[in-house]
Amino acid sequence: MFDHMKLSAWTAGIRNKLDLPLRVELWNGDHVDLSADQPRVKIRVPSPGGLRYLFSPSLGSLGEAYVEGNLEIEGRAADMIQIGSALAGTSGKPARTSRVLSLFSPHTREKDAQAIRYHYDVSNEFYGNFLDPAMVYSCAYFENGDEDLATAQIKKIDHILTKIGVQPGQRLLDIGCGWGALVIRAAQRFGARCTGVTLSERQYALARERVARAGLQDRIEIRLQDYRDVKGEFERITSVGMFEHVGVQHLAEYFGRIDKLLAPGGVVMNHGITTSDVDQRNSPYGGGDFIDKYVFPQGELAHLSTVIRAMQEGGLEVRDVENLRRHYARTCALWTENFERNAERIRQTADPKTFRIWHVYLAGCAYAFAHDWISLYQIVGGKAGQDPAQMPWSRKYMYH
User: How far apart are CA 57 and CA 66, in angstroms?
Assistant: First the structure.
């Protein structure tokens, strides 16, 4: 009786604030609708204990309840995130909470490698069911806005390689090379001699296979290696979707290592996700807590200002900055559509819990980029203190 009274009060409070196309189905067969419109999302509460997730909602707690099976949620992931965010906004709690950074950072080589394997070694088949055919797992580039995902990913790679001015015969290092798409393109189209490093064993194996299939073993080396162990000099260095794993406290060291690997006159591109919050607090409504626990253990997002400072502290000069937030919102939306379109095949490659994690994670990222909670910046740099004659007069060369 008490649970029903509390639910009635909660329902009335939500209806006074919001008109949500949401149906809540109870363990006894009863249900309540929070809008006169047809529900787009259904939340089934299997026992009275599940009501606590509704009475004190956050994206983190609702996401956890869905992943762990404490709430059963049906609907398109985009609708689930939109409604969940609206519910979290009624809690009266601060949207963002401070992230506590330990004075003794948990980032060690072993823990970083474990975090990478946790995220990327689900299976190559799993990723292949929602990524483009080249399996590029980073923000695409929609030059005109109407490109399909595969075309936009090729344009992204070409945009990066053109920005850094890759020339035939130059040595290129790709830190966090994924399944090898960038180094293969750099060798085939731009004539570079490439080294790609990753900590993911599954990425390493498939990237090597793809290089061999393309007949590029003489121009591309794929290594299962920590970037801190790379030796030598490279005229061009790319890091795409990797520095989020470094840790905010270690960014200056990360860029310092890149500076040591960069040949005089060389150019580096860092392409990565940043927080839009200058205080570098967690993403709103507990979204960051969910990602920390289930998706990117050890992942930390810095604000753009922190990144630029860390680059300078590491010995690099920032030469060009481009915001691709709109592009990543579109990329994540397309990944989500692919994920839901291929849901049955994906269920065969992952356990139910992993399926639910990624179902809401991809849509949550699309929502976060669309609402300026997080962003994506491509930053081009070179060694600080170099002769400015090495730098182009304008940005025209990027768009030939």
Answer: 12
Residues of the chain with pLDDT under 70: 1-4, 92-107, 109-121, 298
Decide if 233 is inside a domain.
yes
Q: Which amino acid is at 387?
A: D
**Judgement on whether residues 83 and 117 belong to the same structural domain of the protein:** no
What one-character-per-residue DSSP string does 296-318 give?
A: -TT----BHHHHHHHHHHTTEEE
Neighbours of 347 (CB within 10 A): 13
Checking DSSP bridges between strand 41-44 and strand 171-175, what pairing results, if any? unpaired
Instruction: List active site positions.
Output: 365
Same domain membership, residue 218 and residue 126: yes
What whole-number distance in Å separates Cα of residue 88 and Cα of residue 79?
14
Task: Output the pLDDT for position 115.
Answer: 60
Cβ count near 99 (within 10 Å)? 18
186 in any annotated domain: yes
Question: What is the reported pLDDT for 113?
Answer: 61
Residue 101 falls within a domain, yes or no?
Answer: no
Q: Which string of DSSP letters, residue by residue, matches 183-248?
A: HHHHHHHH--EEEEEES-HHHHHHHHHHHHHTT-TTTEEEEE--GGG--S-EEEEEEES-GGGT-G
How many domains, in total, are found in the chain? 2
* Residues 70 and 113 placed together within one structural domain of the fold: no
Per-residue tokens: 58: 């956050």
- Under 8 Å CB-to-CB from 371, ≥6 apart: which residues? none
Task: Enter the pTM of the model.
Answer: 0.91
The CATH code of the domain that includes 38 is 3.30.1050.10
**Distance in angstroms (rounded) separating the CA atoms of residues 66 and 77:** 12
Range of the domain at 245: 109-399
Do 236 and 329 lie in one domain? The reply is: yes
